[in-house]
Amino acid sequence: MAENTLRDKVAVVAGGEKNLGGLLSRTFAESGAKVVVHYHSSASDAEQTVQAIQEAGGQAVSVQGDLTKVADVRRLFDTAVDTYGGADVAVNTTGMVLRKPILETTEEEYDRMFGINAKAAYFFIQEAGRRLNDHGKIISLGTSLLAAFTDGYSTYAGGKAPLEHFTRAAAKEFADRGISVNTVAPGPMDTPFFYPQETPERVEFHKSQAMGNQLTHIEDIVPVIRFLATEGWWFTGQTMFPNGGYTTR
User: Fold this and answer.
1) pLDDT tens, 58-89?
2) This prediction's pTM
3) Count H helices, E strands: the chain?
4) List of domains in the chain
């Protein structure tokens, strides 16, 4: 059986420069992994994350790319192979949030939301399935809204919903190589992506739905992803909802 640790493994982290992805990149590196830190526009954040990993004695490299472009997804994994000789773990933390009524949503907004939340996720899983070493781990970031009944998030929750189907299909298709595929669906997270979409009153409501009257923190999610990338290898085809009881199904 393959060793289920991150020691000497290569991890590709999409959106790995800041917030959840940044903490995940640093945590993986602390556990002995070489990290490919993907970023879209935050070059300075990616540089800081790579520098922090290197200063702590780890290995990391940053790669810019628009993951709605399949060529950029492939280049991301090319970097892992060319720099470190392969890839073992692939985590996609990217996404885009929009809270807007259906009647006010434009075609451009719809296409952008589904491009980032569905298309990019699909081709990330596809390329990871092609490029990961046997016994690899693929983990995508979903949302607890997949188990909620709410207004306003039609294009966000709708764009994330296909992830569950992509995950289940890939788990079956990659099983003969021992590659596990899962989705982690946190509750509303205390990050800069969340607050612009909500009023202060709605923020308080979201807090009230979870234990401790609080939002999900990135520190709550990183251990879950790390578990799936290591000892939790027997999970596959699953959607996990670490959200403090915000919602369930």
Assistant:
1) 999 999 999 999 999 999 999 999 999 999 99
2) 0.95
3) 9, 7
4) 10-238 (3.40.50.720)
